[in-house]
Amino acid sequence: MDEELEKLQGEWTIAHLEIDGLAPAPHVFAGAKMVIDGDRFESLGMGAVYEGTIDVNPTTAPKSLRLKFTAGPEKGNTNSGIYELEGDRWRICLNMKGGAAPTEFATSPDSGRALETLNREPKGLPEREEKAPVIQE
Question: Over the stretch 42-97, which tens digit does the pLDDT of each residue have?
Fold first, then answer.
C-alpha cells in the first residue's frame, strides 16, 4: 500500500463541514465519520452510506485526492479534491460537481465545493501489563 494512503487508514470523525460557503448546524453531521480501509472509503452518518475508492497523490501542491463512488446516492460519480494531513487532523476540500480539484481550502456560494475537517478516532487505550502482586511477609 502507498505510504501516504497508509497514513489515512482508520476512522475519522467529521469535526467541521462547510458546503457552498455555508456551515450546517453541528447536529447535522454529529457522529458522521469516514472510514478508510486500504484503498476503500465509507462515509457514514450523512443521511446515507457512501462507499467507493480513494486515490491520493502527495506529490501535488496542495496534495490531491479522488473519491470514486461505487455505492450510495453518488454511485458512478467522482469527486476530485485537495487535502492536508497534520497528525490526527485531516482537512479535505472537494469539488462535488465532478470537475477539477479546488486550488484552495475554501468554499463559496454555488461553488459546488465541500470543506471538511476530520479528526482521527483513537484506537483505544493501550493494554496495561498486569504485574504479579507483591507479597509482603
Answer: 999 888 899 999 999 999 999 999 999 999 999 999 999 999 999 999 999 999 99
Q: Which CATH class is domain 3-120?
A: mainly beta
The domain locations on the chain are 3-120
Q: What are phi and psi of 27, to 5 degrees?
A: -65, -20
Nearest to 80 by CA among 123, 63, 19: 63
Strands (E), 1-62: 10-19, 33-37, 40-44, 50-57
User: Rounded CA gap, 75 and 69, in Å?
Assistant: 5
Greatest Cα pair distance, the chain, in angstroms, is 77
